[in-house]
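=== Structure Prediction Worksheet ===
Name of assembly: unnamed complex
Input type: mixed (protein and possibly other molecules)
Chain count: two
Listed entries:
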Amino acid sequence: MQLTNRAKKTDKSELSLFEKSYLPSIATGLGITIKHFFQAKQTIEYPEQKRYLGPVFRGHHILKRDEEGRERCTACGLCAVACPAEAISMVAQERVKGEERLYREEKYAAVYEINMLRCIFCGLCEEACPKQAVYLRHDTFVPVFTDRSDVIYGKDQLVEDMTHRYQRDAWTKEDAMKLWK
Amino acid sequence: MGSFIQWLTESMFLWKALIVLIIFAITLAIAMYSTWGERKVAAYIQDRRGPNRAGWGGLLQPLADAGKMFFKEDFIPAKADKWLFILGPCISIFTALMSSAVVPFGNSFIIGGKEIFVQAIEINIGILYVFGVVSLGVYGVMIGGWASNNKFSLLGAVRAASQNISYELAMGMSIIAILMMSGTLSVREIVLQQHGGNWNIFYQPLGFLIFTVCAFAECNRTPFDLPECETELVGGYHTEYSSMKLGFYLFAEYINMFASSAVTACLFFGGYNYPGMDFVERQLIVGLGANAGHNVATLIGIGSMFTKILFGIFFFMWVRWTVPRFRYDQLMNLGWKGLIPLAVANLVITAVAILSGYKLIGIWVGLALMFVLISIVWSFRPKKKNAIMGA
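=== Predicted Assembly ===
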């Protein structure tokens, strides 16, 4: 039964004397390899050159603040439940009087830790969050660790800096290239 | 004491020692950077970039590799024959380093009225010396493979030995044709006879082809790298080796590549000769005076020699990353049934051509006649029935 027209009948005829010396095929092969030798290389040399990753890339985590600079996270724990790698852990605390300018909800995360060795950057925490608090940035990688004590990221590394707010922009390739430099 | 120093400066001893040292250093440096070159050529042929982190363009990579080799554990298996195990790589690298001693890398320098050849030793049996030393090299592989007390190593060593012996025959025959033409065994004499562009390759195209194929086999390079065939023999004869002993084996391979490129350049591509060399030397002598002009011309000749050698090494690598490995029976068939009869035929054709007095035309006509004859005989061969599918 013939399914496609792509089948090619191979030439099974006996080799001629010239072909049997293998020299013509070796010469053809040398021609092909030397062509590749002089071809432009496709390699992106990573630390110096960076590839366009798109606005939907999932990189470094961030705990967002709202427009007034209050932390959005209410320590509901849904992200920790959603996390398939069990990388997230947190300690909740009740907001006391006078802290209204720091935390938006009446409960907040006193400790919020992500184990970056466990994290698989699937983005399920981002989807689970009811307060739009946790995001995975599209413009920053989690850097290389050289020590085990660097692995667990606390709130000091995760909470958004109000002077450099994170926006998921760069929806065109040119914008993103600027971001990654 | 004074007379001793006078003897030292007047005799050739110091100059020879200097030249030996320089050739030694250059051999090692070229072998070292061949490892870098091999990785670069492999990468470029495979559309990659190759090592480029250590130094500019990865130029410090060989040093990093050597450092790695030195700091690895130097392991000797408990059941191995310890002294032979150590001796193996020593012989390999020793013979590899010796083989370039008779190669003339350049003409001569005239210093203080003395003519100094750019060559470690000038002996009148140069080619024999090269062959002797190269065939000693197989002992390194044999002893290493045997002393490892490991079946894979032993198989690799056996393969290396039989391969080298088989291909040495054809190699020797292809060179005899050259020797008949030049009438001497001295490498310097052979090079001198190829003055200008009068290279042996034009007289011995078939001899060159046979010699190149055999050189690949003698250096254990792909497509004839069966002694260290990873898919069948783990690492072949150096399976059990680690640290700098392994380094010596690998290094010997690159030095052999350098040496055989040098010998090929001398025998077939005119060594340090290049077209228009007389004109260049005359101009230099007019411009710089007799001695200085001659010396500068020699330097240019050395440059031409090394260009040929480096291209030879590149060709070795180019073929390695193009042609897949032969099967063992194919290797033996090619050696015994292909190359040796061709080499003998080439010998006869060359002899007839020399006797007839028309060397160049005679050889080409003879070769053409031979191929016509072979194809006529070929066309009358009994036809085999194709078992798989009709053509």
